[in-house]
Structures are given as structure tokens and as C-alpha cells.
Amino acid sequence: MPEKREVPAGRLPAVSDEVREALDHGRPVVALESTIIAHGLPRPRNLAVAEELEQLVRAGGAVPATIAVLDGRPRIGLDKEQLARVAGEDGIRKLGHRDLAPAVAAGASGATTVSATAFLAARAGIRVFATGGLGGVHREWTHTQDESADLRLLARERIAVVCAGVKSVLDVPATLQRLETLGIGVLGFRTTQFPGFYLRSSGEPVDWTAGSAEEVAAVLRAQDVLGGPPSALVVANPVPEAEQLDPALHDRVLAGALEACAREGVSGQAVTPFLLDHLVRHTGGASLEANVAAVRGNVRLAAEVAVAYASAS
Ligand code: PSU
Ligand code: MN
């Protein structure tokens, strides 16, 4: 028999006192992912954005719960120092849901993607989560079979993910089809078009639209009441018109980014950070501003939804 190795109790998920207190009293909490901080935005801007996002949640009347793994311990709610580690520590890994167990066992530190964040948040009892853009089906899927683990996880967790659609570097129609197959609800927020992350619209329609945070909260409560196997709700919130990337610039630079990715043989987990970084460098930072604007809008809306959900529950 191989020797049984125990996972130390100090590696069990830790919920911060502030988040625990809010959850215990049914007060609104918004989960925030950390991969966008560690791997999606350049330093040192990333730490400023991470702090600003937490501030926006508070201003909206909810408690922020940024999620990451530090020294093998999943953490739901980070203090200032922990947030700074996620933003600035060299070698911080990118952890999808499947990476959580190896990271815990190895005592590793990493930022959590949508899949890992949704998993940890839902288990802690958090109902609303904000991010920038979901992962999805990559354009080269027929060769690479690269589909983000985000989708599979969202098919299994009852959590609302407020996002600006899926990243436009992806195959958007294929991703929408997968969301349908996986039974993941999609609700446009004040739009009948699925947003295009940096752009207000991807050109694809959505079947359902909500006009207010209260309407979104009503859908969450309907999910609760209907019961059955859990699945997520994607709340697709377009970037404000004035802050979207110029669509012509977007299309031009994206084509170059996809070519560079193929030429340099980038694969696996590295693909998304590579494409996002290429876009930042080749739009003179404009894609970064659109990305940050989208995330800000999502975080604000997520706080409103969490407040509406908590007050009516
Ligand atoms: N949205 C952003 N920036 C990001 C991401 C989303 O605005 O960096 C991250 C999320 O953490 C998402 C991940 O879960 O990219 C998807 O990566 P992959 O395609 O390797 O699953
Ligand atoms: Mn991938």
C-alpha cells in the first residue's frame, strides 16, 4: 500500500471573517476571480484594478470576495497583503478547477480562473460572481480541441456570472452553442445581442433580456425554486458604448494576434494570456482600457444583483 498522505487542515478553503460574517447574515457578497489580475492585466496596473474592483463592490453595498490559492490554501476573501501577492508575486500559477487539488497538495500559490473561482465560490455559498470575459471555445478548436474548462464548471454550479460575454479572441457562435448544450442560461443585460467583450456586440443574438438588477435576481430565485441539478446563469453585460474598442481596430489587431499565436506555437493555458497581451501591445493600450471598463461595469452590476437577491430572499 502506498503511504497515505494527509492534506493538512491548514489547506482547507479559508473564508475571510468579513465574508463569513456577511454570508452568515444573508448579506450580499460578490466573488471576484484572480486570474484576470495575475495573468490578464499587466503589472503594476493590475493591483490598482484589483483594489478598485473591491472598492466598487463595497460602494454598491456588497462585500467583495476575491478568490485565490496561497501557499496551498484556497482563500475566499483576501486582505490587502494577499491581494498584493496575487498581483505581484513571480511564479504565481494559473489554476483552473482541475488544478486546485494538485496546488493544495503541493502547497502552491496561484490565481483562480472562472472555473476554479466558480467552484470555490459556490461551495462557500456565494451566489453572484463578476469577471471580465468568460473562457470558451477557441477558434482553432477543430485542430486543438481547446475549450475552456470554464464552460464545463458553469454547467455544474449554481452561480450567476456577470461578464461582458466571452473573450472576442474565441469562436463566439461555437461558445454560445456549447452554453446551450451544457444547459447554461444566458441573459443579456439591457441588450438583445450577446456582448463581444471589448465590443458592445458580438453580432450574435441572445434569447433572454433583463432590464434591471431586480429582474436578474428574480431569475436567480427562480433557479433556486426550480431546483434540480445546478447550473450557472451567464449575465451578459456589454461594455459601455463610449468605452468599447474601435471595432475596425479590434478586427485588424485580433487577426494579427491569432496569426502570432499560431506562428509561435503557443498552446494550452498560455493561449488566453498571450492573445490578451498581444492585443494590449498592438492597440496602444486601448484594449486594456476597454477590458478594464468592461470589468468595472460587470462588478458594479454584480453588486446590484447581489443586493437585490439578498433583499428579496
Ligand atoms: N477575462 C478577462 N481576462 C482574463 C480572463 C477572463 O478579462 O484573463 C481569464 C479568466 O480567468 C478565464 C480564463 O477563466 O481567462 C480562461 O482561460 P482558459 O481559456 O485558459 O480557460
Ligand atoms: Mn484553454
From TrEMBL:
Cofactor binding annotation: Binds 1 Mn(2+) ion per subunit.
Q: What is the name of the gene encoding this protein?
A: psuG
Q: What does this protein do?
A: Catalyzes the reversible cleavage of pseudouridine 5'-phosphate (PsiMP) to ribose 5-phosphate and uracil. Functions biologically in the cleavage direction, as part of a pseudouridine degradation pathway.
Q: Which GO terms describe its molecular function?
A: hydrolase activity, acting on glycosyl bonds; metal ion binding; pseudouridylate synthase activity
Q: Which UniProt keywords apply?
A: Glycosidase, Hydrolase, Lyase, Manganese, Metal-binding
Specify which residues bind substrate according to the UniProt entry for this protein: K94, V114, S148, A149, D150
EC class: lyase
Q: What is this protein called?
A: Pseudouridine-5'-phosphate glycosidase
**Positions annotated as active site in the UniProt record:** E33, K167
Assembly and partners? Homotrimer.
Catalytic reaction annotation: D-ribose 5-phosphate + uracil = psi-UMP + H2O
Residues at which Mn(2+) binds: D146
Which GO CC terms are listed, alphabetically? cytoplasm
Q: Which family does it belong to?
A: Belongs to the pseudouridine-5'-phosphate glycosidase family.
The biological processes this protein is annotated with in GO are: nucleobase catabolic process
Which EC number applies? 4.2.1.70
Taxonomic source organism: Streptomyces morookaense
What cofactor does this chain's UniProt record say it requires?
Mn(2+)
Q: Which Pfam families match?
A: Indigoidine_A (PF04227)
Provide the leader sequence positions: none
